[in-house]
Amino acid sequence: MSSSQLLVTTAACAARRSILTHLAPAAVRTFASVASVTSTTRSHKVVVVGGGSAGLTISHQLLRKGEFSEGDIAVVDPAEWHHYQPGWTLVGGGLKNKEQLRRPLKSLIDPKLRFYNTELASFSPDSNTVTLGNGDKLAYEHLVVVPGIKVDFNSIKGLQDALSNPESGVSSIYGYDTCDKADRTIKALKGGQAIFTQPMGVVKCAGAPQKIMWLALDHWKKSGLYDPANPSSSPIHITFATGLPVMFGVPKYSAVLEKLRQERGVEGLFAHDLVEINGNEAVFSHGENQKLARKFDLMHVTPKMGAHAFVKSSPLANEAGFVDVDEETLRHKKWKNVWSAGDASSLPTSKTAAAITAQAPVLVKNVLRSMKGKEADEEYDGYTSCPLLTQYGKVLLAEFKYGGVPKETFGKTLGIDQAVPRRAFYHLKKDFFPWVYYKYMVKGTWGGPKGWLRD
Ligand code: UQ1
Asked: FAD/NAD(P)-binding domain: from which residue to which, for each copy (predicted)?
């Protein structure tokens, strides 16, 4: 792909994202004034905002309960493609090709659901309506807000240009356009400084910034370019620069990963937050007003992430911009017929697809119970998981609930410690999860650690 093509693709992708997130006030007013003349209002029992992992899983689980007719449930999402994002680390590691991991979003939506393939402009929870980008309104009995989180490629100065420049060693597994560049740059590097970053603040899949590093390290080791026993005289030097004070948020797994880092001779720059890329120099902020500049030959960047603007600016959001729901029932703290899960929600747990497997059944049960006038008393315990690749062929399967308390699926039944990286977990991550995701999870029949769901 030529640099101009790559630029165009990246720009087009940014444009697609920006439809949802950057509706300029002027554009909104235009839509609104058109709306006053021509807009229509359609009614649905449930409106689901978002057709990602949470949106598809929840919509189909609702539908499968047999209590809804055609058109009772609506899904709103402007995307053309649905991506299996947990697979992008595997793309960066050269284990999958990115085209395999996506499906046309339309093809994943049951015809009994009404699909609005359009952006959402605003929420009006007091009148139980949402307004679409074209000014039409949807009225609802219950609203499920699951549009995910925005990966902000503009959050780091110089990042967009560095990513779209095919000559630069800068890549990111956090985007469709750039996840395969990680593989190309890792394979092309024959010597020099490699830096892997993780920002301060919330990101989805908090383990991915280091998964890609462990795969790269393993590749360079096998190619004779990196000797963990003798890092300073190896052709390649590896640094993990993270905004966090530790390797991972859960102490049990963090201890294991910190040990690996030290054993493998990886430099740790903790509490260092990448703020700028300038040619082959990376600038980090740390401490109070301190800056550190480092030269690099390869850099894998995890951009900062945050709530979509149309959620953040809505009455549904908390201070941080996330949909403000109860930690256990997933019900909005103010509007009792509004619900959220997944990356867009305020739930204080790690944002992953695995978390959706536990959140979706709780949300669905509580919506159905409250539709029948019953108490919404099903509770989510914060379950989430991070299948953490530590090398080719090995995965540490972190599973935990609120408070960073381990909740291991196989520990219970097989009596094993999931902090020990294993080959069986690698096959779960590489082969089983992508398969079960498209065949069952998005269709509403996969319950994660609970196995297949029965109606
Ligand atoms: C899971 O169900 C799932 O979804 C398909 C994942 O992929 C994104 C996961 O990473 C994990 C951990 C689960 C949980 C399931 C089991 C069997 C532990």
From this structure: 45-184
Say yes or no: CB of residue 441 within 6 Å of ligand 1: yes
Sign of dihedral through CA atoms 203, 78, 182, 101?
Answer: positive
Q: Are strands 267-269 and 236-242 parallel, antiparallel or unpaired?
A: parallel
Count other Cβ atoms within 10 Å, centred on residue 368: 19
Contact 325, 340 (CB under 8 A): yes
Looking at the predicted structure, is the pLDDT value of residue 306 above 70? yes
Residues whose CB falls within 8 Å of the CB of residue 46, separated by 6 or more in sequence, listed in order = 59, 62, 68, 72, 73, 74, 140, 141, 142, 143, 144, 367
C-beta separation of 284 from 306 below 8 A = no
Q: CB atoms < 10 A from the CB of 15, how many?
A: 10
Known catalytic residue: 179? Answer: no
Backbone region of residue 436 per phi and psi (left: phi > 0; alpha: psi in -120 to 50; beta: other values)? alpha
> Is 386 an annotated catalytic residue?
yes
